[in-house]
Amino acid sequence: MPIPVDHAPIRTSLLRDTVHDRLRDLIVDGTLAPGEVVRDTELATWLGVSRTPVREALLRLGESGLVRAAPGRSTVVSEIDLAEVREAHAVVVTMHRLAVAEAVARLTPAHLDTMRAANQRFAAAIAATDTDAALAADDDFHAVAVEVSGNRALATVLDQFSPVVRRLERLRFASLAGTESVALHDRLVETCAAGDADAAAEVAYRTWQNLADLIPDTQPDSQPDSQETP
User: Fold this and answer.
1) Which of 7, 25, 21 is nearest to 131 (CA)?
2) Cβ–Cβ contacts within 10 Å for residue 208, how many?
3) Which of 173, 209, 213, 220 is the most buried (most CB within 10 A)?
């Protein structure tokens, strides 16, 4: 039969995003370990796609700092650089605080119900020590404010830097410290429901700032004042 002239073409952007998200998640959850060599041909075969979306995904992952490549050399999964994690975390904290501040006036009862339901799933996942489910529920919870804010620049920045911070989130949500986030989520919904943008933004800040406790001090130990001269 003839091809319909009005047939909508497949959106290649969806394929690129899917490949990127799959590889990003494999790096964040440790399936692709730090220092591991990743080859576009092998990844393309494994994912059942051409090399083009894989190469594009690796370029984006390089911009996020999750992989590193040099001309003529293999691409490798980046080691966890604490300085980069600290920088990315500062950006992510600021963006989520801004998202909530901009979203409060636009949140509807339906949006708040979505946040409450996500936090219930989050609490259940924390109690069951299901880190993957906790991260998914946490994403759903915070995505409401990001989407309602309508700030595309903010969303783009979070898309780039959140994966770097995600490694910290896995550590937090795998421990009892994650239970504190449940209470902070509840408080965030309460302040949003009250229409208090300033208070809600402060709670959002506290929620994300808590991850800073998981970043070890990157400063070298100070040397004694008196040292023997050679």
Assistant:
1) 25
2) 21
3) 173
> In 8-134, at which residue ranges do the beta strands (DSSP E only) sit?
37-38, 67-68, 75-77
DSSP H helical ranges for 74-178: 82-103, 109-127, 131-149, 152-173
**Which tokens belong to 146?**
């990001």
Q: Higher confidence at residue 218 or residue 18?
A: 18
pTM confidence score: 0.78
Residue 80 — φ and ψ, nearest 5°?
-75, 115
**What tokens appear for 154 in the block?**
């903010």
**Token digits of residue 141:** 């919870």
| Residue 180 main-chain phi, psi, to 5 deg | -65, -30
Collapsed DSSP state (helix, strand, coil) of residue 215:
coil
Rounded to whole angstroms, the Cα distance separating 56 from 50 reads 11
> What pLDDT, on the 0 to 100 scale, is given for residue 65?
87
Cα gap 122→133, rounded to integer Å: 7
How far is Cα 186 from Cα 188, in angstroms, rounded to an integer? Answer: 5
CATH among 1.50.10.20, 1.10.3720.10, 1.10.10.10, 2.60.15.10 for 12-77: 1.10.10.10
Check: CB of residue 66 under 8 Å from CB of residue 85.
Answer: no
Which CATH fold topology does 82-214 show?
Four Helix Bundle (Hemerythrin (Met), subunit A) (1.20.120)
The residue with greater pLDDT, 83 or 143, is 143
